[in-house]
Amino acid sequence: MTERLGGPQVGLIMGSDSDWPTMEAAAEALAEFGIPFEVGVVSAHRTPQKMLDYARSAAGRGIRVVIAGAGGAAHLPGMVASATPLPVIGVPVPLKHLDGMDSLLSIVQMPAGVPVATVSIGGARNAGLLAVRVLAASDPALQSRMESFQADLEAMVERKDTALRQ
Ligand code: RP5
User: What is the ipTM of this complex?
Assistant: First the structure.
């Protein structure tokens, strides 16, 4: 794999631009940690060739983690995982019908051999944070920043606990 200096390390894709209001939280999490990422619409059903081209070329372009969000018959994360060796994080996007259960079940129940790390329905922020953790496993400086982030979370909860008790 060729890692291009300064190029995107995370590919953040979604089945439709209508998924962006949900997926934006992943972009925000990546930006908080200064992770270079690319964003795009890639549809498993409407642009199948583009999806395959994207999945097959991602590692060679220096992408190290793919975050894929889709709603309804949400086949994008699984199909991308089938055509790339990269870790794929799936985000079930909730649509107006079925409360996102259709999206969740479409993404989470993958056949053995083709893993997708599925976050909660609408859980794009955690998808971004999980991508940061994957990258941090081979980047001590990034791992330190993740530890600081976790310490901040803990301190925030403690402040709220103290405020409630007063
Ligand atoms: C899915 O179909 C997309 O991921 C989106 O969640 C859903 C609806 O897409 P639009 O009709 O809003 O473009 O493939």
Answer: 0.97
Position 2 confidence tier, pLDDT thresholds 50, 70, 90: very low
- Give residue-wise pLDDT tens across range 138-159: 999 999 999 999 999 999 999 9
Name the residue of 13, 16, 121 whose CB sits within 8 Å of the most ligand 1 atoms, as the mutation to test its pocket.
Answer: 16
- Three-state DSSP class for residue 125: helix
CATH number at residue 87: 3.40.50.1970
As a whole number of Å, the CA-based R_g of the chain is: 17
Pocket flag, ligand 1, residue 16 (CB < 6 Å): yes
Q: Residue 52 belongs to what domain range?
A: 10-139
Q: Which residue's structure tokens are 């059903």?
A: 45
